[in-house]
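Page 37, continued from 36.
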């Protein structure tokens, strides 16, 4: 539960003035834009300061930097790249503690969905979208996406189009295909989905696939 409104916290900590807050609140009424976006748009506050206050608002830690030791590729590879980017969210591990880091702590559904992938106790933290996206781009395991897409290639028209264009999959192709989310392709291929579910070597978590499958069906 949010203890205080973000605007009041920013004024209280003297990160913005009451006049700046009032200006953005009026623009919010006129345009429908989010208050956070308006504050950043007018450069009244930095992304880092805003993220720190968001963390304080929901009572979680602020993560200023994510390094290689905090990222577990096998865990990261279980989550579709598009999901991570769309929700600006990433799972990390610090001192054996599993943590879900988000830039939007008020968006609870993606946090719940991702928590299904992480056994044991999960805690939460806040960072900026720049820090999270940089980490995703740097550490997301492309090889995992390549293996999944090649396994699905025999039945996937998307993969066939890539292969007809010039032989083996290139890294830039994998990024594009990962953005389309292998899970989406799985939704269209029940036979292949059953094969992956029954494979002891699968990198796909069934619970998460089921959640995303429901999303695909409704889309």
């Amino acid at each position: 539960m949010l203890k205080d409104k973000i605007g009041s916290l920013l004024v209280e900590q003297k990160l913005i003035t009451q006049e700046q807050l009032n200006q953005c609140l009026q623009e919010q009424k006129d345009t429908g834009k989010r208050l956070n976006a308006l504050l950043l748009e007018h450069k009244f506050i930095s992304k880092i300061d805003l993220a720190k206050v968001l963390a304080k608002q929901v009572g979680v830690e602020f993560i200023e930097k994510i390094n290689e030791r905090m990222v577990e590729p096998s865990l990261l590879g279980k989550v579709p790249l598009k999901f991570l980017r769309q929700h600006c969210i990433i799972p990390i591990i610090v001192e054996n503690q599993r943590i879900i880091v988000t830039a939007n702590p008020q968006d609870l559904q993606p946090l719940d969905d991702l928590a299904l992938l992480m056994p044991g106790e999960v805690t939460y933290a806040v960072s900026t979208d720049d820090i999270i996206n940089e980490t995703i781009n740097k550490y997301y395991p492309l090889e995992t996406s390549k293996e999944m897409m090649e396994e699905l290639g025999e039945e996937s028209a998307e993969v066939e189009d890539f292969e007809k264009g010039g032989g083996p999959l290139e890294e830039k192709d994998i990024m594009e295909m990962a953005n389309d989310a292998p899970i989406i392709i799985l939704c269209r291929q029940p036979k292949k989905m059953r094969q992956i579910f029954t494979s002891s070597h699968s990198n796909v978590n069934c619970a998460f696939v089921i959640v995303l499958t429901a999303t695909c069906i409704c889309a």
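The longest strand covers residues 89-94. Flag for discussion at group meeting. Residues 169-219 have pLDDT under 50 and may be disordered.
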